[in-house]
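To: structure desk
From: M.T.
Subject: fold request, one chain
Message: Could you run this one when you get a chance? Sequence is below, nothing fancy, just the single chain.
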Amino acid sequence: MDYYTIDFETANSNLTSACSIGIIGVKNKKIMVEKYYLINPEEFFSPISTLIHNITEEDVWDAPNFKIIWESIKSYFDNTIVFSHNASFDFGVLNALFEKYNISKPTFHFGCTVKMAKLMWNEGEMPNHKLNTIAKYLGIDHNHHHALSDARVCVDIINAGLKMYQVYDVKDLYQMLSLKFGYCGPENFFNTFKMPTKYKKIRINSNRFQNKLLIISGKPKQMKKRDFIYQIIASGGFVDSKVTNRCDYFVKLDNYDEKKLEEVVKLRKQGIKIEIITEDTILEMVKT
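Reply: Done. Structure tokens follow.
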């Protein structure tokens, strides 16, 4: 498959309360896989949620929980690209379910069709970028908040983007829109995001830091900080300034923050694998 699209509905406001999932698989712009599952969330249903998607507690009494369903769908998340509309929600749900049922996290990249839609159509063309609004704009039959129908509209958004930008690959389209794919893996989870304008022309030309989180502290001596960050992003890395147990590298530049380094050292003593590197090391690594 070229990519998959998914949509979750939840029984209540908890991300762990998924009660349905729709999955679409696409090859050469054509839908090849369509899967829909009711899920027993093993949690309560709020009246507001039921009002939105019309799924009740009675509907899922005999449905399997997510851990059982995962065995049937996990191949769709095995080193693939997966999209949803509002990725922070749907992949937040997926990540929460992994933790709830102690499921080993797969490795895949994910994108967001609402971010794409906002860049493809401005407010003058449509009042908002909700799925039902986009479906109406594109002239598509749509059952809003039915997980499979929502996942189908994600495909229509992507196909529209491929046509508008005259490209054939979703990776090229995402990059042309100055978007960076999110990442889910056994150790890290990074959300998808729009690249700042100053980095919009970046092309990923290396996988040296693919799916790695680098914490940068201080200022580089050999180039502007913006250009230094450019080098890392172009090598597939994610850049942040906050130290957490998810980071892979701490980049110690000139006039670095000693408190941040102390945090890194503390995490390392706790067994967290964080490599401390310098500007020269980074520049040497991106060359190889």
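Reply (cont.): The first helix runs from residue 47 to 53. Let me know if you need anything else for the meeting.
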